[in-house]
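Input chain follows. Return structure tokens only.
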Amino acid sequence: IDRGGAMHIRTIKVLVRIVVERDEDSFYAYCPELKGLHVGGDTEQEAVENARNAASAYLMSLIKHNDPLPVGSQDASVNFGDFVKQIAGSILGKHHTRIEELSLAT
């Protein structure tokens, strides 16, 4: 709130990585940088939307508790075997990665 009594809302834009995999009759999505964020959905789009909603809630909780945002941070070390598995999975259609932009009003 400023001196004139007007309330200002700050918006933070965050990019999150969402990995989507087929899981028999449904889809599974997770955000590797947001520990513990795993969701499902009947369709790929529903899994992505569930991941977006969960990521927004996750990040808002971090902001509320003054915790650092892990989004955008990457481990500098790369395990070549994991890298090859990830590329092979993408090529074979087992999973794919999306980058989604979230706008968070704080």
